[in-house]
Amino acid sequence: MDDPELQAIRQRRMQELMAQHGMGSQQNAEQQKAQEDAKREAEEHRQLMLSQILSSQARERLARIALVKPDKARGVEDVLLRASQMGQISEKVSEERLISLLEQINNQTSKQTKVTIQRRRSVLEDDD
What we know:
Blueprint: H1 4-53, H2 56-68, H3 70-85, H4 95-108
Helix pairs in contact: 1-3, 2-3
């Protein structure tokens, strides 16, 4: 049912795709490795800056928070790094100051839950 000419075209196309993918994977692997190295360096730089900003107790508390809620810890780290870059932090952040910052962030991002109850009407109920 397959035309031999069509089959030959499919095979050539498949070989072309495999060749492109083979060469592309080498380039992609190098690019991927470079991106991973850049991410690792950025993370090391971030941790170094945080160690300069935070006291040891505050770092421990932030690490415990990161175990439970990594996105919240990352947000707090971002706030601290931004404040440090803007010159708002002149001394190391203590655990108490970190706790107050966490409370402020919790108050700003508190989610209010709302429950609505919808009752289903039975077919046999009368609206009268």
